[in-house]
Amino acid sequence: MTINDNKIIFGHSPDADDAFMFYAMEKKIVEIPGYSVAHHMEDIESLNVLAETGKLPVTAISAARYPDVANHYRIMSCGSSIGRNYGPMVVSVDPMTEADLEGKTVAVPGRFTTSWLLFQIFGPKNCTPLFVDFDDVGPAVTEGRADVGILLHEGQILYEKLGFHGIMSLGEKWYEATGLPIPLGVDLVSRHIGDELAQVIADASFASINYARANEDDALEYALGFGRGIDPADGKKFVRMYVNEDTVDMGQEGRSALEKLFSMAVERGVLAELPELDIIQAN
User: What does the record give as the active site (predicted)?
Assistant: First the structure.
């Protein structure tokens, strides 16, 4: 991984919460001295796949993907998508109970997503995954290609408006089992750029998130341009859900939550061994 033309590329999703966090950088209110900032925007599963190459200096990924890419990246203490008692939602067209999930085909927004890992921890073992693009989960369920689907992002708060019935909130299941916040996504910085620059990037990310939260109206106006048509009230709710105090600094609870996620995955036989957490503290 190299940085060309003194340009640092940040990989992130084209979603309102990520746009909100990068508002201050995009407007050059927060800068990285000596470097310009560019963006590589793809859905989270595409970023999960790309992270295996180590090409991006900075990238968001699903927390579940970290064990596979830890050789290339360290976790930043800021920028994480962490929920408290909410998270991905398992939905269907017709009303269903959790017991009805046995043997069902599940539309999953990516093999490496934390949502799939959580389903493997809390759902029945005999379900069949149908891995589809993020925006194809809903259609896969409504068209009958899958019995149920796992909705992320805005879908987890808008599923009823979209005509779905909620079966299981993976965020609630997690909280009931652990009492911890749910670590869905993390922001990474490359091991290959040197500790000094990695720290500068982490600190700039920290400053950008804090600025957006302190200037919410302006940052939201910018961010909702990335909201896929979501109305402003729902957009504000969504951004506040996933750009919160835990995003500013995951703290010890966030670290404990990551350790718990991976240990439960090992216990369930989904993950072979526990990864070593390497977290760079932003200031």
Answer: 153 (proton acceptor)
Look at residue 16 and tell me whether its pLDDT is greater than 90. no
Residue 40 Cα distances to 57, 162, 188, angstroms? 11, 29, 14
Query: Domain range spanning residue 195?
Result: 7-81+181-280
Instruction: Name the domain count of the chain.
Output: 2
Alpha-carbon span 7 to 85, nearest angstrom: 38
> What residue has token string 């579940």?
64
28 and 12 belong to one structural domain: yes
Look at phi and psi of residue 228 and say left if phi exceeds 0, alpha if psi is from -120 to 50, else beta.
Answer: left
How does pLDDT run across 55-112, given as a tens digit for each residue? 999 999 999 999 999 999 999 999 999 888 888 999 999 999 999 999 999 999 999 9
Residues 171 and 94 in one domain: yes
Rg of the Cα atoms in the chain: 18
Looking at the structure, do residues 186 and 274 belong to the same domain, yes or no?
Answer: yes
3-state secondary structure (DSSP) of residue 91: strand
Catalytic residues: 153
